[in-house]
Amino acid sequence: MNIQNIMRQPVIVKDNISLSETVQIMMQKKRNSVVIVNDKGEFVSEVDVVSVIKAILPDYIEEARIAAHFASSDYFIELCKKSKDIPIGDFMMKNPKTTTIESSLMEAAVMLINSKQSRIAVLDKNKFPVGLLTRTELKQAIGKILDIKESNS
Description:
This protein is of the alpha/beta class. It has helices at residues 3-6, 19-29, 49-56, 59-63, 65-70, 73-83, 105-115, 135-145, and strands spanning 12-14, 33-37, 43-48, 98-100, 119-123, 129-134. It has a single domain (3-145), classed as CBS-domain (Roll).
């Protein structure tokens, strides 16, 4: 078993789209993250739902639970609408960890834990994203190794 056997297909977007376009793609593809590429198709970064939420919220609310407690739902709606045109480059992850198809499952598992990311882009030798390794895929691999069958209930 290797990374290529368990990785999922990434949802890939260009590095010139907006926050609203990013959310639209995430919703259409039923994914919580996207992998960002440049015009050459090379990996640039990732964006997940947490990145989107952080882009919408002002720093003072993000860091102060008391301020968030007094902010209304209407304020959240207003912030969402104001944020729709933010370029993806403004809220993509800074220096996300990546792995390669050649890496071992052990390397990927350690990287996932140490980076505190919930997913890692899998790149080929040309830095093109070819997969996405998430905690779910690793959990499924562990289950398969332990001969645990998925239940449908």
